[in-house]
Amino acid sequence: MSVVVVSEFLPDAALGLLRTAGHVRFEPDLHARRDALLAALESAEALVVRNQTRVDAALLGSAPRLKVVGRVGVGLDNFDLEALEASGVTLT
């Protein structure tokens, strides 16, 4: 079963859809607790963020199974695009 980490607020309807794909770890304040976020990503295959979670090389290095990051909203200010490309993780 896939592990999906959601580190910021998402509506219940969106969480319900994610839960059909695997185990969802939903902690809307996880973005503010960087050490806990990095630990949560050790087994995650997917990460869903909004605009508060900084997706950088350190985060990607802590997520060896991560395959995809989903961005809810617009803008890419919180992403290190070079680190994403180097890691092979897809941003959508």
How many DSSP-defined strands?
A: 5
Q: Helical stretch count?
A: 4
Outline the biggest β-sheet.
5 strands, parallel
Tell me the strand order in the biggest sheet: 2-1-3-4-5
- What order do the SSEs take from the amino end to the carboxyl end, as H and E? EHEHEHEHE
Q: What class do helices, strands and sheet pairing give?
A: alpha/beta
Number of domains: 1
Describe the protein.
The chain has 4 helices and 5 strands; from the N terminus they run E-H-E-H-E-H-E-H-E. By secondary structure, the chain is an alpha/beta fold. It has one domain: 3-Layer(aba) Sandwich (Rossmann fold), CATH 3.40.50.720. Strand 4, helix 4 and strand 5 (90-91) form a beta-alpha-beta unit. It is globular. The two termini are 21 Å apart. The model has no long low-confidence stretch (mean pLDDT 96).
Key words describing this protein structure:
5-stranded parallel β-sheet; 4 helices; globular; 92 residues; 5 strands
Secondary structure layout:
Layout (H helix, E strand, L loop, with lengths): L1 E5 L5 H8 L2 E5 L7 H7 L5 E4 L7 H5 L6 E4 L9 H7 L2 E2 L1
Parallel strand pairs: 1-2, 1-3, 3-4, 4-5
Tell me briefly what this model is.
The protein has 92 residues and is an alpha/beta fold. It is globular. The chain is built from 4 helices and 5 strands.
